[in-house]
Amino acid sequence: MNNQITGVLFKQMVLHGAAAITAEKQAINDLNVFPVPDGDTGTNMSMTIAAAVTELRKNDPATVDKAASITASALLRGARGNSGVILSLLFRGMSKALKGVEAADAAAFAAAMQEGVSAAYKAVMKPAEGTVLTVSRLASKAAVDCANEGETDVEMILEAALREGYAALAETTNMNPVLKKAGVVDAGGKGYLLILEGMLGELRGEPMPEIIENESQSNNIDYGAIAEEEITFTFDTVFIVRKANPDVDLEPLRKYLNSIGDSLVIGEDDEAFKVHVHTDIPGNALNEGQKYGILELAKIENMRTQADDMAAGRKTQSIDDLEMDEASANPPAREAAEPEHIVAAPEKKYGFLAVCAGEGLAAVFRDLGADGVVSGGQTMNPSTESILEGVDKIPAETVFILPNNGNIIMAAQQCDALTEKNVIVIPSKTVPQGITAMMNVDFEAPDAESIVAAMTDSLSTVTTAQITYAARNSDFDGFDIKEGDYLALQEGKLFGTDSNLDVLLEKFAADAVEREASFISLYFGEDVSEEDAQKAAGVFEANCPDAEIAVLSGGQPVYYYIISME
Q1: Quick one: CATH architecture of 4-204?
Q2: Model confidence over 471-491: pLDDT tens digits?
């Protein structure tokens, strides 16, 4: 019997939940009915919660508040794919509900589960029933109802949640026509319940499945010097203020800070706000900020000194370098320090970050003006942390992100709350959409809104076609698909399947004729020779003699061809 969840116990519950979903991730992946090889739900959810495992193992949280906070923060940064982002939101809401709580009783834990569901629903633009949202909502309601009936054992609370959750999961088949036709349940809902099962298993003292560690990703950090003449104000000033009033108007503070500096960014939520500004009088900025609440953290760095150090090849000093051991005047020894997360000082107003897989595609984005490229896409959805690192390396006040995949958009959107830069996500769902958006950028635009409008409006002008392979046997949308067959997709929907690639190329060429396409670009993948790519282009040239046709090496995995038609 467990009447309270302490910080240490919550940590172990999360570790057990992570082990449970990792052990079953392939079974969850197999619930994905669409036969295209992709960043499957089981993989994304298990990798997301693995980020929390890594951080929790570094800590011994004394309270459930601390344990939940560590978990939520790690999940947010480690979130991969839409399912991973939703999982992070479920734990973020839970952490908010447990704030200030030393040990959670059954009622508090049930209420925290429900708060997590509220956070997830608020963040999803168009919540769909028959998904993990439905399963988590009904499971958390059962937990709260159980607690309201007087149950004080957390084990019983989780048992009630799982009973109702699995009943709801079974119903997802009937709520979603695609799931019903395939005869499967929602993969995200199943993953969520597996994590709850693991958490319950920890309370019961059950053995933990062995966790397969993620491969760590090393980061090559580029340190760029800032030219002296480009530094208008000396001090890079960042501070966080806990609001005295949730509804406080920060516009007067914004006007004041703009009058004493530049590169101003203010981010806020209901409880606090974070300021980044370049100024010669940082003390005045802090004093003004304290009029709106309690100063919690401040960081002031001399950019001119940093620029001199970097130009001379010296290591730049930061606040972290100045931490002193209480017992001596010497800096404390550090073991196996992790690579520093670099935030480039703004040197220009706008920067652009694209997500894609393949050196050829990356080169196209860079040629069009992208400042950075994050490697990722289908089968390898990058984490929020990976995207955030790309954002922070760009020396711009505002960074536009092109996810170029529908399953990466939500992860990209989480970056705005994690950086002092202004982040704008352009909802590009395919690489051709992202390329078209970059081609419509006015780099001299007076404001970000006009850039957003031009890029977003351009997304609908391009049709994306792709040819890949079937990852599994499937009877989908009227197609009898065999594993290994070629699959043709158009705008994310199944367009055709055949064992002969030329048949699908002819179908796409005929469709290009109907669309009266004037510009056709074929990006061929890493498994396609240039000779075969030229032959494929010949199919389009024969059918569309008046169209301008380009053949480029994309180098992308998974897709033999990515075809753009405008």
Answers
A1: Alpha Horseshoe (1.25)
A2: 777 766 667 778 788 999 999
